Protein: Putative dehydrogenase
Amino acid sequence: MLKAGVLGAGHLGKIHLRLINQSDKYELVGFYDPDEKNAKKIVKEFGYKYFASIDDLIDAVDVVDIVTPTLSHYECALKAIKKGRHVFLEKPITKTVKEAEELIDLAKQNNVKGQVGHVERFNPAFISVKEKVENPMFIETHRLAEFNPRGTDVPVVLDLMIHDIDIILSVVKSPVKKINASGVSVISKSPDIANARIEFENGCVANLTASRISLKNMRKSRFFQRDAYISVDFLEKQVEVVKMKDAPKKPDEYALVLQNAEGDKKQIYFENPKVTQNNAILDELESFADAINNNTETAVSLEHGTAALKVAMEIVALVEGE
Structure:
């Protein structure tokens, strides 16, 4: 059982504390939070051990779970990795691509593993269809959220869109060729609505929209590929798979058949993959433990997190006109 400690006990940090505490793969040693008042409240309510400093916590564990504000990810991970500790970093991996690349090199030098908390990779809806997403040529994503003052200190691209950037990069096996983007600041000082178009070298195009001032929440992605359409609702955890195959000479009378201008006939089939409900955050944390124990690749590596950040930062620069 791996000894784990959590840095940061805010909204998400408390969720991580609870899940690590209930996991069979970890022993929760304790946590550190700079807000002593908040820390004492958590100790009183849940009984978790509170460490007086980051260094004390790092010295006592095998795995450091970093759930602090993004600005401090690099410094926290740096301390942990230098002491030979495995690190789980919430997304985005770091504030800058340079910081992320330094962590990759440092992790290799110290022979430790790192994973980034792109939790949508563990969404049961995506898991149920990800093997069916093969060479998509057009992708459309909408990630809309109702306004919440928490998180408006960062651009909507880093707050919301980065989830979809990571998912897209995980299914499109081709380098990024070109990015266009625009955005608008409505309430915050940084953009609240952003749209990006990512073109890949293999011809795939992804159109992403993110908003944090929507009247309703939405987290949908649609993947279009040869003879197939796949829709993933990350919020409702539902999927829709529509496939086309060459129509038989004598199709069933209720079959849905389409005919193009050349006279080719395709029959439409609907698939309903089983979506097995899970706790995505628990699954991502336990997958990290498995990677450490089995010495295998992490599900969302530091390299994956850096690739997503690199695209996100390019979009931010375009949106903010830098």
Notes: The chain has a mean pLDDT of 93. The longest strand covers residues 176-184. The two ends are 47 Å apart (CA to CA). Residues 104 and 173 are 21 Å apart (CA to CA).
